[in-house]
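Write out this protein's structure.
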Amino acid sequence: MNPAALRILPLGGLGEIGKNMTVLEYEDRLLVVDVGLRFPTPDMVGIDLVLPDFGYLRERVEDIEAIVITHAHEDHVGALPWVLRDLGPESAPPIFGGPLTVAMARSKLDEHRLREIEMQDVDPGQRISAGPFEVELIHMTHSIPDSCAVAASTELGTVLVTGDYKFDQTPVDGPPADVSRLAELGAEGLLVLCGDSTNADRPGFAPSESGVGPQLERVFARAPGRIVVTSFASNIHRVQQVVDAAVTLDRKVALVGRSMRKNVNVARSLGHIDVPEGMLIPTREIDDFADERLVVISTGSQGEPLSALRRMAHRDHPAVELHSGDTVVFSATPIPGNEQAVNETIDRLYHIGCDVITTRDAPVHASGHGFEEELKLMLNLVQPRYVMPVHGDFKRLHLHGRLAEAVGVDPARVFRGENGLVLEVDARGARFGERERAGMVFVDGVDIGDVADVALRDRRMLSADGIFIVVATISEQTGASVVDPEVIFRGVPFLDEADELVSEIRQAVDDSLARAAAEEIREIDLLQRALHDDLGQFIYDRLRRRPMVLPVVVEV
């Protein structure tokens, strides 16, 4: 009897950078690898976070055996509280990950008051039984400790989900990636590789994280005043390098940003960050030290609207007021899509008088994702039968597929997918199957909604073209207008002839009401709908814009 088919369903991370989430299905049981989020693009007005659409999991919550997290970056673990709230805490499956990954995930769940969820630390090499899956975490190197690839074995074969990785030969924390175990998987016969594609467009090898520390020290030594370093709050290795450079130059360190303080506290408790006694100072004491004695480590490397550095750049931070002579070091590169926000922040910093150092000026950042040669090394180590590039936009998925073909993988066995498109593998081969529900869910504050949410549409309309509010008062008996309509407008751009336009709108309202009265339309909602359509067309013909039109009909 042939084994059952294995289904691989990406719910996020394909065709985009972020919100990584992959579902493996075998014998009608599910294993979820990563539950990430991504940050909104500028057109997502007022949206705080973007999550994968996990409706598929909601419908099959009883079939989920476990959730496995590769590492503790937001694009792999950030959606976990939302997923668990949606599935129902009482129905939540067990959650597995490395010690730091679980500690940071647990801290995140505590904020959402999800304290009863079962979570378990797993060491690399340890085997976990999850229904028909045998799961093993394999140690990898990335920009955060406890990064692992996930090998999920079934009767049909083994799937390797790499998570984020690079083959750093001189990591700052712990041993290099477990190349020997990856080679063993290749010798045993790997069925499918789901590999990180983030840097599939960059030739050569990624520079080692250990090379960043000396560069930071050189930049610090040249800075005459206060130094502000911004990086991802979860980049524990980078925080350690900044602390080391500060120690060498006899500077105190202040952590600014809630997520930065929280993550550093978790990492220190697990021994991943070593800070000498007395080095860290609270933010309230920043002004007590001379500028040349201080380094501030801050969130905001991606220009996020409410982040600490963004608020500093706009002179809106309660604890840090930047001034001329400060040096701001961007120890990160912009995630694709964030370039505009980062550039705006940098420009504001220059306006204040700060000296800004980015990766264009000095090698103060090393990517945590492998370049082309490392992706090829992974392919040659594990020798997969099938390859499914993941974790990247469509350009990078395509380039990763070409790298697989370059090292000898049959092009017919390279599957460039997209979110919601299932890869089905059985004894006869592999093929794309039917699409499942996938997409985006928006978070606004603490509420979530789908991509078609009318509120987002309205925000876009308001931000682009403004709003007209028209109040019409009509006779209950005849439906005719009894007083001049009131017209209120806000945010309508380039409105030079306002008085003339208001008069024309009033006439258009009277004309619309007269037509409705002639057709004996009396219902308020029908009258408002007719006014909305007539005024919308009139305003577009007049202004070539589509502001929001809110008609209000009052009967007297």
